Amino acid sequence: MSADSDKVLIPSLAMLGSQVSVNLGAAVAKHLFPAVGVEGMTAYRVGFAAVLLLALFRPWRRAVSRPEALTLLLYGSVLGLMNLLIYRAFDRIPIGVAVAIEVTGPLVVALVSSRRRLDFAACALAVFGLYLLLPLGGQAGHLDPVGVAYAFGAATCWGLYIVAGKRASALGGGNAVAWGMLVAATLTVPIGVVHAGAALLAPSLMLTGLAIAVLSSAVPYPLEIFALRRLPHNIYGMFSSTSPAVSALAGLAVLGERLSGVQWFAIACVVGASALCALGRQRSA
Fold it and tell me: Could you give the CA distance from residue 60 to residue 177 in angstroms, rounded to a whole number?
């Protein structure tokens, strides 16, 4: 295997590991929604992840300049809002469908950065997939429109996360994600405390929340920031496209969420759209 292949393979494996971990954590997290609510679950996920990442990377050992601090503030704010919005979507629609909508964020980033004809075909395929998923005429299994709106909000945040994460990664992958998660926790934990209150202090729930934080944030985000530093936006978008399929399988295995044939086909269209982006990138290279 050539050195050039290794440069793509290693961050690609990091992205795959990130997707498996985060989607498994999301499926487990949905079990806790009745106990602590969406906001409380977000507080668990982001708060525990911030503590773990700060202890692991100790980012305070390196001074942060004012411009870097502003970049981290944007990165962390988008990260916190993305977590809250996608959990709100999970509460109303199947996880696989929510993630299929969310992944259009990185897909748009990939398409905007290119003018190849193959990418326009990918855009058309993604739009067709969304048409099949969205609650238009009832063909998508009567999805909750509010849940769909939350998923699109998370998609917007994911696109911004890629752009902000690319800039933040220059500070060092571990340091950036630790500071970013701290900013995200500062925003989301107070909201969770207000909504869930003393229920968050139940030992059994806290242990489950800690496990979810490890699966959903502490493991995948360092892997993603590692991949962001080494992969172009197009390639990152392609690997992000595996998320709908992985999340749908996690939802089926953990939650028993069964999707219709149309929904599975729609998810395949979104995944295929990102794959076309990657193919166009390879042809250009």
Answer: 12
CA distance 172 to 75: 14
The answer to whether 200 and 43 have CB atoms below 8 angstroms apart is: yes
Nearest to 15 by CA among 120, 162, 126: 162
- Measure Cα distances from 251 to 38, 39, 256 in Å: 17, 20, 6
Tokens of 163: 């752009």
**202 DSSP 8-state letter:** -
Q: Rounded to 5, what percent of the chain is helix, strand, coil?
A: 85, 0, 15
Angle of helix 33-57 versus helix 3-29 axis, rounded to 10: 140
Q: Is the pTM of this model over 0.70?
A: yes
Q: Give CA–CA dist 19/256, Å, rounded.
A: 19
Cα 119 to Cα 18, 130, 238, 270: the distances in Å are: 25, 16, 12, 13
DSSP of 21-64, one letter per residue? HHHHHHHHHGGGHHHHHHHHHHHHHHHHHHHHHHHHH-GGGS--
Tokens at 270, concatenated: 């979104």
Low pLDDT (below 70) residues in the chain: 1-7, 113-115, 135-141, 173, 233-238, 240-241, 278-285
